[in-house]
């Protein structure tokens, strides 16, 4: 068993020893039941509010986005909104950017060939992104190029779209990035179609990680997608000793929508059409409150030896690792055999955050919203 890496968080360590030996999770939930109940109520309220704000935000920006997509459709591209603006996890109050992928074909092998060329040749990547910017010049949209990154890990063209008497909208344009649409559809099926506790838990976990200083894909930290996978893996995990899964195995329940073998043209149709699933068709056997699940989420990852096990989202299991990158979290999504999480020292950072938080829960602290490590 490897020693967990030390991490500099945004809280002080002095009070950790004062909490004593942490209680078992069931004892925490029983001992602090009123605070857990209040936590549930507050998170539910915030989740409902964020969903309403998301709907209002999408209504507000959809006209601009439709004009943007149309200018590329006219040039024979197949554009798709992806990421949190598609999945419903965007926080409109934080001024979320909108991710858009421009597909040059509906044939999977053509998209892959194009993407391989973009990723292997910075000069070709720059040419393609510059071409995407040139198309904007021919449109009626008022815009400003913020950055063009042909050599980045994920080459993007970031533009700011100006709107009359409204706040400008920032859009990240990518070319032929096939996983983005599949990933977004996977998260959308979990966050918007199955159980409100998915959105609620994601809201709390993202805010908690922000307090820990662990959020920010640009800085090499956890992205919204990483956060969503941590939540989904916990909720569909099939080997919990003390609770039934909240979610079914997503790939089993939505084979047409989520299978890696589904033709990309079908995925594009699903991803660019209004969601058609029926939330009432799924009745979770787990009736725990969101407060219970928050405490158990922290307990689950506190007990998971991330240096020894990968988080295998397709199977809903923790699988013993075969690699030697022990401080990198092995987070396997349904569409890549490699880890989609490249957070530096991610094992140590997440493990220590969970340990500190679990100790606080045991001592009856940390149940306020927003979460804080400050003693009060």
Question: What's the SSE blueprint?
Answer:
Layout (H helix, E strand, L loop, with lengths): L24 H7 L1 H41 L4 E5 L1 H4 L10 E6 L4 H13 L1 H16 L4 E8 L6 E8 L2 E10 L2 H16 L2 H16 L12 H13 L13 H4 L1 H4 L5 H8 L18 H14 L5 E4 L4 E4 L10 E2 L13 H17 L14
Parallel strand pairs: 2-5, 6-8
Antiparallel strand pairs: 1-2, 3-4, 4-5, 6-7
Features:
Beta Polymerase, domain 2; 376 residues; NT_sf; 2 domains; poly(A) RNA polymerase activity; globular; disordered N terminus; Poly(a)-polymerase, middle domain; MTPAP-like_central; 12% strand; alpha/beta; five-stranded mixed β-sheet; 13 helices; three-stranded mixed β-sheet; Poly(A) RNA polymerase mitochondrial-like central palm domain-containing protein
Please explain how this structure is put together.
This protein has 13 helices and eight strands. With 376 residues, it is an alpha/beta fold. It folds into two domains: 222 residues, Poly(a)-polymerase, middle domain, CATH 1.10.1410; 118 residues, Beta Polymerase, domain 2. The chain has a five-stranded mixed sheet, sandwiched between helices. A three-stranded mixed sheet has the order 7-6-8, covered by helices on one side. A hairpin with a 4-residue loop joins strand 6 and strand 7. Helix 2 packs across helix 12, helix 6 packs across helix 7 and helix 6 packs across helix 8. The relative contact order is 0.15.
């Amino acid at each position: 068993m490897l020693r967990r890496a030390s991490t500099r968080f945004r809280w002080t360590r002095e009070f950790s020893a004062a909490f004593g030996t942490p209680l078992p999770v069931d004892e925490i939930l029983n001992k602090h039941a009123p605070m857990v109940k209040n936590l549930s109520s507050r998170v539910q309220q915030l989740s409902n509010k964020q969903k309403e704000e998301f709907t209002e935000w999408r209504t507000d920006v959809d006209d601009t986005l439709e004009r943007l997509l149309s200018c590329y459709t006219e040039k024979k591209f197949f554009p798709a909104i992806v990421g949190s603006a598609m999945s419903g996890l965007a926080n409109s109050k934080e001024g979320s950017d909108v991710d858009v992928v421009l597909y040059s074909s509906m044939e999977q092998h053509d998209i892959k060939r194009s993407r391989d060329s973009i990723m292997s040749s910075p000069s070709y990547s720059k040419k393609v992104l510059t071409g995407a910017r040139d198309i904007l010049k021919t449109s009626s949209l008022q815009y400003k190029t913020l950055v063009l990154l042909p050599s980045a890990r994920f080459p993007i063209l970031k533009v700011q779209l100006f709107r009359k008497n409204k706040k400008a909208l920032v859009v990240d344009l990518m070319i032929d990035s096939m996983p983005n649409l599949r990933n977004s559809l996977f998260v959308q099926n979990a966050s918007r179609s199955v159980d409100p506790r998915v959105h609620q838990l994601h809201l709390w976990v993202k805010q908690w990680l922000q307090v820990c200083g662990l959020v920010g894909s640009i800085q090499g930290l956890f992205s919204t997608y990483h956060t969503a996978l941590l939540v989904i893996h916990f909720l569909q995990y099939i080997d919990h000793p003390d609770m039934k899964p909240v979610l079914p195995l997503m790939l089993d329940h939505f084979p047409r929508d989520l299978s890696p073998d589904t033709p990309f043209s079908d995925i594009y149709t699903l991803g660019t059409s209004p969601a058609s699933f029926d939330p009432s068709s799924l009745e979770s056997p787990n009736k725990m409150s969101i407060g219970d699940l928050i405490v158990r989420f922290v307990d689950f990852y506190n007990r998971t030896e991330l240096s020894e096990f990968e988080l295998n989202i397709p199977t809903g299991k923790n699988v013993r690792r075969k690699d030697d990158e022990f401080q990198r979290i092995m987070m396997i999504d349904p569409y890549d055999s490699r880890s989609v999480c490249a957070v530096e020292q991610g094992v140590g950072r997440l493990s220590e955050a969970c340990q500190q938080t679990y100790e606080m829960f045991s001592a009856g602290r940390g149940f306020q919203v927003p979460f804080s490590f400050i003693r009060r």
